[in-house]
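Appendix C: a fully annotated inverse folding record. The material below is reproduced so that readers can follow the format used throughout the book. The structure is listed first as tokens, followed by the designed sequence.
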């Protein structure tokens, strides 16, 4: 079971209208961003290949989207090619206190990968996911299936909306926030009824946080 939007939203017709506007903004803004940021994409792609020639430039990972739908999420690869195999050996050092695995000074990340993560450059290929409709610019970060399998019912409310590139906890401490805190902040965003004004504020805060590079690892 999970909490659904109908459990907390009293005017679903207004929400559908907002979602139509949000999708239009997502598609338009992302299309422009892809053109403007094309030199950055090229630089990152070359840097990834030179840093670790053995692996692919783009890392694809199965994530859980709206209503539990699975999709492939794209990132510039920031880890060595054997990162997934080494994850189990490091689980005892998980620093989120929950289902999501995060670790400072993760040995699976190659040197330039740390730069990609610090300034969230590894997330740029997710603009493609936004164009495809798998993601939105603003929304809860998409989890991996193994994390969702361990969710408590109240955690699952975040699966009722389209996942995003950024949301409240990304601008409130990023990886420094423990798992339960991330879940509460995501649900708080959902309860705000997806207001476009709130999304714009979160996007502006995201730029500030990314440039500072705080809380990313």
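Designed amino acids, in order:
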């Amino acid at each position: 079971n999970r909490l659904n939007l109908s459990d907390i939203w009293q005017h679903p017709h207004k929400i559908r209208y907002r979602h139509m506007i949000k999708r239009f903004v997502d598609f338009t803004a992302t299309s422009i961003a892809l053109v403007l940021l094309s030199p950055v994409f090229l630089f990152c792609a070359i840097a990834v290949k030179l840093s670790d020639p053995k692996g692919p430039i783009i890392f694809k990972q199965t994530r859980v989207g709206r209503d539990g739908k699975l999709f492939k999420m794209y990132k510039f690869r920031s880890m060595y090619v054997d990162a997934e195999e080494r994850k189990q050996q490091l689980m005892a050092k998980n620093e989120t206190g929950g289902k999501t695995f995060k670790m400072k000074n993760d040995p699976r990340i190659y040197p330039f990968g740390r730069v990609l993560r610090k300034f969230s450059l590894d997330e740029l290929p997710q603009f493609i996911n936004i164009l495809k409709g798998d993601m939105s610019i603003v929304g809860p970060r998409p989890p991996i299936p193994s994390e969702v399998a361990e969710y408590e019912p109240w955690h699952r409310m975040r699966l009722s909306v389209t996942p995003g590139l950024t949301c409240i906890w990304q601008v409130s401490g990023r990886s420094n926030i423990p798992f339960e805190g991330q879940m509460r902040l995501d649900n708080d965003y959902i309860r705000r009824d997806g207001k476009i004004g709130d999304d714009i504020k979160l996007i502006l805060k995201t730029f500030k946080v990314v440039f500072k590079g705080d809380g990313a690892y």
